[in-house]
Every structure is written in structure tokens, then in C-alpha cells.
Amino acid sequence: MRPLAVVLHYRRTASYGLNVLLGALEQELGDECGVEVLTASGIDEALAGTADALRRGFRVLVAWSFYSPEVSTIAAELARFDDLDDLDDLDDLAGAVAPAGEVRHVVGGVHATAEPVATLAMGFDLLVAGEGEEPFVELVRALRDGQPIGADGSAGLWWRDEHGAVHRGPPAPRHPLGRYPAFALRRGRYNPIEITRGCVYGCTFCQTPYVFKARFRHRPVPDVAQHAARLVASGRRDVRFLTPTALSYGSPDESVDLAAVEALLSSVRAATGATARIFFGTFPSEVRPEHVSVEALRLIRRWCDNDNLVIGGQSGSERMLALTNRGHGVSEVERAVRLCVQEGLQPNVDFLFNLPGETAADAAATVELARRLVALGARVHSHTFMALPGTPLRDAPFRPLEPSMREELERLSSQGAAYGSWRRQEQVAAELVSIRPRRPRRRHDG
Ligand code: SF4
């Protein structure tokens, strides 16, 4: 049997998840694992790495991860591997031979988890649903050892057999967050440290609680501090965190546990020293508005280097906040912004424009709130609603932004009061609807 090579196909938008898988492989299989692991930046490197591994006599497993808005790009990239079956046309790959079954493609991530059948139909052979660490490690182990897929070790996997039929294993177990590293320590593939996974809030537009369960799992403080120390020891100065809601750290529910947050931040500071820069509640994470308090802001200012805070506001309509299950009202958003300004942090407020079911009055209330917050000193981080697979709003129809809303966003952007990818997201929202898998119509009896 030929040995196995794993090609991790890194893309700009999907590197964190692959770092985590690489870290899990490093931890579980070790350096002498009998598998050659290649990291490829972009499709050209992934193709070249695959061809080279084939030429050297390996079987290849190519690992992919992507987000819903990238479906058409990924389908085109995946199709480029078909050329490996017809190498006569490719001088630079001459000598590489891809006998049937020698190159397999495995995909994971939130889109794959939400739409496994449609994702496999794009041409992938295998799919990891939900949390990927254990299923991916077990898949690599099984392929390395020549074990058939579908025997032991198929938890969390979906796959197509040689006839194209789709099969699935049992759900993979969910482990405590500290079970696997937050990035690939040995290979120096770093990213923000994931301190919390899952979310107890059920905002209807968001994939997080539906993919990772509506429950928090927090990485233990010593584990986070150790990761932070490794980051800084590697020459990086900035320590950032991945979490759905930063001030929920240490809490099992909607409450805030500031003692847990302080234990986290003080330990990270102790582990990284005075010259490291620690950012909490900023990109790529945020805080919920009702969690913002003077005590929380002072704690952040004491231990961190933030000059801003990202607050989830989403809508200025009480009706839309309730409809989307946000769990807070408009007044909490205004209060959070006032407190940030008072305590010397620039508030950046996430807004989600064009929500399904939004009336002209709802849209006007959102624009009005954005104006009020800007007048208080906030910046508006503008997003356009996208019907994301796996969410309760996945089947919402596309509708373009109202001209008046577009004008207001342009005006705020030109003043520097708003930023964000709302124009691109509007295009993606239309594209997502156009590629949406058809679902059986619901029967309405009676
Ligand atoms: S939007 Fe934020 S708070 Fe709401 S479910 Fe998603 S991660 Fe949780």
C-alpha cells in the first residue's frame, strides 16, 4: 500500500480551522506518524503539492474548509483537480499519475455541516460534520492504516461510496475545549486563541449555535495562558481571542462572570509580559450590549490594549430584535455605547441591515439608531443579511437593499462613520439564494 500524504488546502478566509486540525494531528499522531503533511497556500500550491506527492508514490487526502458564500469559488477550485486524471495536458505535472481513488477530498466547516448532502454533491469524497478534530484525526489514521471508511472511526463522517450513495457515521463526541490545541504549535501555524465554543443565544441569522450547539464550552485559563505564551515566544506581539461573545467567558449561561474574565486576562498578561498586546472584545470577536458595564470596561482597560470594543447591536427595531431572538433591546445598545465613550473605548457597533420580515418602519428605526450612535461617538460596522445554511432563516428570500437604506449607508461610509463589507454581502446574499439546494415543499394538511 502506498503511504499517505495529507494536503491542507489553506485559503485566506479559512485558515483557523485548518490550523486547529493540524494541531490535533500533531498532538494525536506525533511527528513520526507515518503520514506526510503538506500545507498549501491557495489552489495552485494545493494542486502542485498533490501532483508532487503522487509523483513520489503517495496516496493523497486533500483537506478543505470554506464558508457558505464561497460555494461557487470552491466548486471551480475542486474541478481543477480533475486535470490530475489527465496529465498529458500538463507538462509541469508530467510523471504524476492519479489512479482512481488515490486522491480523495475531505471537507469540513460550517457550510459542510449545515448542507452535507449538497456539499458532497459538489464532488467531495468525505465530509466532517460539526467539530472536526477527532473525526479528522481518526480519518487520517484509518486511511494511513488502510482501514475501510465506515468501519470503526467513522464518527462525525459523511462519505460517498463508489456508487455515489451517501453514508454517514454516528455523531462525533463533543470534548472539553482544552482537549485539542487552539492552533498548530509545532509548525508555528498561529491564529487567535479560541477561548469559547458554542453559544447559548439562538440568534436566528447566526450559524454558531446551530453548528456548535447552544451551550458554552470554555478553554481553561492555564491552557489559554500557555497558548498566549507560545504566541509571544514565537515573536508575535498581539494576542487575540476567538469567542462568540467575549464577556461570556467562564459563564454557563447568559450571566457575566467578571471574576472569570479577570482570571483569564490577568493570567494571559502574566504569561506574556508587559510588552505583549492583548485584545479582548475586538475583532475577530465581540461583546453583547447588555454585558457591557463600567466594571467590565475598566477590567478590559486594566489588562488589555484595546482602544475599541465591538458591540453586537444588529437592529434599531425592537420588533426585529425580538423576531431574531437577540435577547436584548435597543436601550442596551445605546447604554453600551455611552459607557464605552465614558470609559475611553471607541464603540464599534455591528448592524445587520435588510433582515427578512423587516418593514419600512423597522428599517427606519435601524437607520435612526445608527445615526444616534454615530452622534454619540460610535462607528457602525455594516453587514447585509445573508440567509446562511443551517440557520432558521436559511430559506429566506433575497431582496435588494431599499434605495433609502443604501443611500444612508453610503452617506455614513463617506463620513467614515460606517465600515464593513455590506455591498459585497448583498451580492453574496443573492448568490446564496441562487445556489440554495431545493428542499421538499412542506405539506400543509387541513
Ligand atoms: S450572533 Fe452572537 S450571540 Fe447571537 S447566536 Fe450568534 S454568536 Fe451567539
What does it look like?
The protein is globular. It contains 15 helices and 17 strands. The protein is α/β, with parallel strands linked by helices and 446 residues long. The protein has two domains: 4-168, Cobalamin-binding domain (Rossmann fold); 177-434, Aldolase class I (TIM Barrel), CATH 3.20.20.70. α13 (360-376) links the parallel β15 (346-353) and β16. Strands 2-1-3-4-5-6-7 form a seven-stranded mixed beta sheet, sandwiched between helices. A four-stranded parallel beta sheet has the order 14-15-16-17. α9 runs parallel beside α10 and α12 packs parallel to α13 (360-376). Residues 87-98 and 442-446 have low confidence and may be disordered. Bound molecules: iron/sulfur cluster. Iron/sulfur cluster (SF4) is lined by residues 199, 201-203, 206, 208-209, 244-245, 288, 312.
Helix/strand-derived category reads alpha/beta
Q: In angstroms, what separates the terminal alpha carbons? A: 60 Å
Q: What order do the strands of the largest sheet run in, or round the barrel if closed?
A: 2-1-3-4-5-6-7
Question: What's the CATH superfamily of the largest domain, by name?
Answer: Aldolase class I
Number of helices: 15
Domain unit count: 2
Name the poorly predicted regions. 87-98, 442-446
Shape category: globular
Q: Look at the structure and give the mean pLDDT.
A: 90
Using the coordinates shown, work out and report the CATH topology of the largest domain. Answer: TIM Barrel
What is the CATH first-level class name of the largest domain?
Alpha Beta
Q: In what range is the share of β-strand residues? A: 15-25%
